[in-house]
């Protein structure tokens, strides 16, 4: 999360009115690029225990997520795989970035998250990435965890 002096975070001032103290910033991302004419879509995703999630794909606009329950195995191109537990957030810039994983990191419990996506006009919400393209982009993927 980045600090933005032009936009102080609600809830930071103990002397502020109560309605501002009720707000807690969970995530802030900058810079973001929202495609012109984009629409926003908020989805609730529920993965059964051990579900690997969506195959490698990309989004054409940014996406912002919050894990409600369980733990998400999350991996974007160029970043190491990480586990985001309930109460944690994630975001991705969209565009030409492969989203490798978003599945349930738990073998014995459901995982649920909410994600808001900016969808480029005339483009699908997500596009699966073919095996041949993954092979060509393999050098962009972060090293895989041992185990």
Description:
This protein has 2 domains: about 30 residues, no CATH class; about 100 residues, Sandwich (Jelly Rolls), CATH 2.60.120.10. It contains 2 helices and 9 strands, in the order αβββββββββα. The strands form 3 sheets. It has a 4-stranded antiparallel beta sheet, with no helix packed on it. It has a 3-stranded antiparallel beta sheet with strand order 5-4-7, with no helix packed on it. A two-stranded antiparallel ribbon has the order 2-9. It starts with 17 loop residues before the first helix and ends in an 11-residue tail after the last helix. The N terminus is likely disordered.
In short:
This protein has helices at 18-21, 131-136; strands spanning 39-47, 57-58, 63-69, 71-76, 82-85, 89-92, 99-104, 111-119, 127-128. It is mainly β and 147 residues long.
Specify the CATH class of the largest domain.
Mainly Beta
Domain count: 2
Gyration radius (Cα, Å) is 17 Å
User: How would you sum up the global shape?
Assistant: globular
Average pLDDT reading: 89
SS summary, helix count: 2
CATH architectural name of the largest domain = Sandwich
Any descriptors?
33% strand, 9 strands, Jelly Rolls, 3-stranded antiparallel β-sheet, 147 residues, 4-stranded antiparallel β-sheet, 2 domains, mainly beta
Topology:
Elements: H1 18-21, E1 39-47, E2 57-58, E3 63-69, E4 71-76, E5 82-85, E6 89-92, E7 99-104, E8 111-119, E9 127-128, H2 131-136
Antiparallel strand pairs: 1-8, 2-9, 3-6, 3-8, 4-5, 4-7
């Amino acid at each position: 999360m980045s600090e933005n002096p032009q936009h102080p975070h609600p809830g930071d001032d103990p002397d502020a009115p109560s309605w501002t103290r009720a707000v807690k910033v969970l995530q802030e991302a900058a810079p973001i690029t929202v495609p012109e004419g984009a629409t926003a879509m908020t989805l609730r995703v529920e993965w059964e225990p051990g579900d690997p999630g969506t195959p490698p794909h990309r989004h054409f606009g940014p996406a912002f997520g919050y894990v409600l329950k369980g733990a998400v195995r999350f991996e974007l191109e160029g970043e190491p795989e990480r586990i985001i537990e309930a109460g944690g957030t994630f975001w991705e810039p969209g565009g030409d970035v492969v989203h490798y994983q978003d599945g349930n990191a738990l073998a014995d419990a459901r995982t649920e998250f909410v994600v808001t996506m900016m969808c480029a006009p005339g483009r699908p919400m997500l596009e699966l990435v073919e095996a041949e393209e993954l092979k060509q982009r393999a050098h962009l993927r972060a090293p895989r965890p041992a185990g």
